[in-house]
Amino acid sequence: MATIITMPRLSDTMTEGTVATWLKKVGDKVSEGDILAEIETDKATMEFESFNEGTLLHIGIPAGETAPVDSLLAIIGKEGEDISALLAGKPADVAPAKEETKVTEETATTPEVTKAAAPATASLPKGVVVITMPRLSDTMTEGTVATWLKKVGDKVSEGDILAEIETDKATMEFESFNEGTLLYVGIEEGNTAPVDSLLAIIGPAGTDISGIAENYKTGGAPQAAPAVAEEKEVASTEKASEPIVQESSTDGQRILASPLAKKIASDKGIQLTQVKGSGENGRIVKSDIENFTPQTSAAPAPTSAAPAKAETVAAARPFVPAGEVFTEEIKNSQMRKIIAKRLAESLFTAPHYNLVIEVTMDEAMKSRAIINSVPDTKVSFNDMVIKACALALKKHPKINSQWREDAIIINHHVNIGVAVAVEDGLVVPVLRFTDAMSLSQIGGSVRDLAGRAKNKKLLPTEMEGSTFTVSNLGMFGITEFNSIINQPNSAILSVGAIVEKPVVKNGQIVVGNTMMLSLACDHRTIDGATGAQFLQTLKQFIENPVTMLA
Predict the structure, then answer these.
(1) Under a CB-based contact definition with an 8 Å cutoff, are residues 548 and 387 in contact?
(2) What average pLDDT does this structure show over 419-435?
(3) Beta-carbon contacts of residue 302 (< 8 Å; ≥ 6 apart)
(4) Which of 98, 400, 413, 475 is the most buried (most CB within 10 A)?
């Protein structure tokens, strides 16, 4: 009996997909696990494998065309089988449950449908849905459950937030596409598991799900979630070994708070450790933050002996015997793992070289002071550098390129990535069409993106598509440094601090302000002379900001 294959939901935000390439054609034999096609989602182009075997009898979406999720993608069956009834849309001819491994509403509850889960679909009790660890970004290979917002036994409605999941780029809310009762939790808070591992099981209350968990463990051996009472008894030393994404109290215990409560608290500058939660299990909710009143208490007057005692305590240091080896192990976060992987790939695959130029900043400082004198306007030197880079890239498009084995891609649009340091590492939010933005628009966008990056609220789409990157360590007093290229870009600009020092002007030694710029280039796409010409244009724009208005 022929089986209908529908357009899968390959990301949590995907509503339609484009068939980039068919790797099989009508009449080809298909085995389970074969790649049928490459499908372009709103985040990435991904391989879509077959969960069935037989002959490809029909292709419903030609290469290059776009269709909504669950549209007819293909039909697989026996060679020569009559599929006219299926094409006419008669449900009686659809493959029975035993053979049906296409993406359905039940199996599409997560962004990824796993091969391991497919064969067991037919054995699921009625109404039971298995939820697996979703792929929430194009580079995500595993995820960490930061917080469960539902517990076993809770009612779940479509659209409810099940959990907060930490990816390699951000902590994101994962919502349910189903309704029912949360029957099983497969990954405890703080634990990490590969994409497609068993995350949870949802179904009618009281349904017997014994044996289902073992059949769906695809990413290791996730354990069932313990009772709430057991969670409260976990020692603080065990909690300290887990990757804590949320704010922690002084005793090392996790502070439970809704995402909205966290955002409001962050906006108001309220420490969650000072707020008492009124929600379930002491969870802090929106009303707790809105009704919170900071309490202040006067410190008792110190006695005459108190200062000496305080000094003694402050001077105390942990005693480490001579010769003793002391180490501390910090578990790598998803972000740190991806940073290590991506930068190592960049450094060891792209032949880097660096060009350095010194820029006079006197005119830029005067221009910035005039611009910032306008009400409600705030522009930084970094904003001016970004704007100058955008204009220089339009004049030197070879810098705005990327390497492929068969061709060099020249980008005539300018999307500048701005490196932002966060607690766990580094993220690069992207300013799209930067050359068309004003200085004040650049400044406002950078502040917004940087703020949300530090709160792990950036969307994966806001960190994709850069064509050039700017990294600035000048605010830390670093005068000069070299960066690793953020691939697939061909170059990255390192910006140092503005330094006041003696300079020669018109044959006289005077006090001036200068800044060092270092351009790291991929020699496969950018020759030395091309990089030098770009820096000369960039220098002209920065030293004479009025030319950026021309």
Answers:
(1) yes
(2) 91
(3) 310
(4) 400
Alpha helices in 186-333 (DSSP H): 212-215, 228-233, 236-240, 259-268, 286-290, 306-315
Q: Which distant-in-sequence residues (6+ apart) come within 8 Å of 511 by Cβ?
A: 500, 501, 502, 503
CA distance readout (Å), 40 to 8, 67, 202, 404, 523: 11, 11, 29, 19, 30
* Catalytic position from the list 58, 352, 413, 523: 523
Q: Is the per-residue pLDDT at 431 higher than 90?
A: yes
Q: Of the segments 193-202, 215-224, 240-249, 392-401, which one has the largest average pLDDT value?
A: 392-401
Contact between 80 and 74 under an 8 Å Cβ cutoff? The reply is no
Dihedrals phi, psi of 337, to nearest 5 degrees: -65, -45
Does residue 214 carry a pLDDT above 80? Answer: no
Q: Do residues 61 and 72 lie in contact, with contact meaning Cβ atoms separated by under 8 Å?
A: yes
pLDDT over 70 (residue 418): yes
Q: By C-alpha distance, which of 4, 197, 22, 196 is closest to 102?
A: 4
Query: Rounded mean pLDDT of the chain?
Result: 80
Kindly list the distances between the CA atom of residue 105 and the CA atoms of 130, 188, 498, in Å, as whole numbers in the listed order. Answer: 11, 26, 58
pLDDT at 98: 35
pLDDT at 320: 62
Whether 160 and 175 have beta carbons less than 8 Å apart is answered as yes
Q: What is the pTM for the complete model shown?
A: 0.50
Cα 542 vs. chain centroid, distance in angstroms?
A: 32
Place of tokens 């659209």: 159
**CA-to-CA dists, residue 337 to 167, 168, 170, 243, 246, angstroms:** 11, 7, 13, 13, 19
Say which residues have a Cβ less than 8 Å from residue 137's Cβ, sequence separation at least 6.
43, 167, 168, 169, 170, 460
Q: Which helix (H) or strand (E) holds 533?
A: helix 528-543
Indicate the helix (H) or strand (E) that contains 394. Answer: helix 381-395
Please state, in angstroms and rounded to a whole number, the distance separating the CA atoms of residues 103 and 194: 21
Residue 12 to residue 43: CA distance in whole angstroms? 10
C-beta separation of 34 from 24 below 8 A: yes
Is 352 annotated in the active site?
Answer: no
In 3D space, the residue among 76, 75, 35, 73 whose CA is nearest the CA of residue 53 turns out to be 76
Active site residue 413: no
Q: Indicate if the pLDDT at residue 240 is higher than 50.
A: no
Q: Which of 497, 550, 541 is nearest to 389 (CA)?
A: 541
- Which span out of 124-128, 372-376, 515-519 was modeled with the highest average pLDDT? 515-519
Q: Determine the Cα–Cα distance for residues 250 and 227; give it in Å rounded to an integer.
A: 24
Residue by residue, DSSP assigns 423-458 as: TTEEE--EETTGGGS-HHHHHHHHHHHHHHHHTT--
Question: Are residues 80 and 92 in contact, defined by beta-carbon separation less than 8 angstroms?
Answer: no
Q: Which two tokens stand for residue 178?
A: 């189903």
